[in-house]
Specification:
9 helices; 233 residues; globular; six-stranded mixed beta sheet; single chain; alpha/beta
């Protein structure tokens, strides 16, 4: 009989970094159409069940950052609404897996923004629940993969690793995917964005991650009239 308390792991990353493929290796599901292309085949947040050693796992596939079919704000809002909804139901994540293709050597400003968005929505307190996973390592020489991994750990990933995140290498096999998931254990932690939206009652644009995107605040009719006519009551 499977455990009644499931393990929830969310997978995030840049479009084309192998998020869906990672989940496919865990669930045995066939790849989505277009999974090998740079355009995103995951347009919303999708959850997939899997059972292993009498334990139930829920893997959450999210739309990728730097998405050709959705703006960065739309991607963030889709992820935020899912996290808010699950937190209101007292469903906390066991881990958050961030995928980074080892073959992606060019880093644009949008790519950097996507990673910072990810970091801010997780928060420092939940850093030990993060796994920074390099993917597509089977497509390059081992020495090249090692060099890219070291560079990431010295630069973009350094601060997050110092806070408790752990780098991992995924070699496109089910065995390594499950090892990464198993090593997360069963500890659950609330992400910063969930705390801000639910526990602190903040609107999305006032969250730590939302401020990075400069989201426009939703103004009510009364609020707009106050701005126009300087109403104080």
């Amino acid at each position: 009989m499977a455990s009644t308390t499931p393990v929830y792991d969310s997978v995030m990353g840049k479009t084309g970094s192998g998020m869906s493929n990672f989940i496919n290796k865990l669930t045995g599901m066939p790849p989505e159409d277009g999974a090998e292309q740079l355009s995103s085949c995951t347009k919303g947040v999708n959850a997939y069940k899997s059972y292993r050693d009498r334990q139930r796992f829920i893997f959450v596939d999210t739309p990728g950052f730097n998405n050709q079919m959705m703006s960065q704000s739309e991607v963030f809002e889709a992820i935020a609404r899912w996290l808010e909804k699950t937190h209101r139901r007292s469903i906390e994540p066991t881990g958050v897996i961030y995928t980074q293709s080892i073959t992606d050597k060019s880093r644009s400003a949008t790519d950097a923004q996507g990673f910072q968005l990810f970091r801010r929505l997780c928060g420092e307190k939940a850093a030990d629940r993060i796994r920074l996973v390099t993917t597509m390592c089977d497509e390059v020489e081992a020495s090249e993969a090692h060099n890219v991994e070291e560079t990431l750990q010295r630069t973009e990933w350094q601060s997050l690793i110092e806070e408790g995140a752990r780098p991992e290498i995924f070699d496109n096999t089910s065995e390594t995917a499950w090892k990464i998931v198993r090593d997360l254990g069963n500890t659950k932690k609330t992400l910063l964005l969930q705390e801000e939206l639910v526990d602190m009652g903040r609107v999305l644009e006032d969250t730590t991650a939302g401020k990075l995107l400069g989201l426009k605040k939703t103004v009510t009719i009364r609020g707009q009239l106050k701005q126009w006519f300087d109403w104080s009551s």
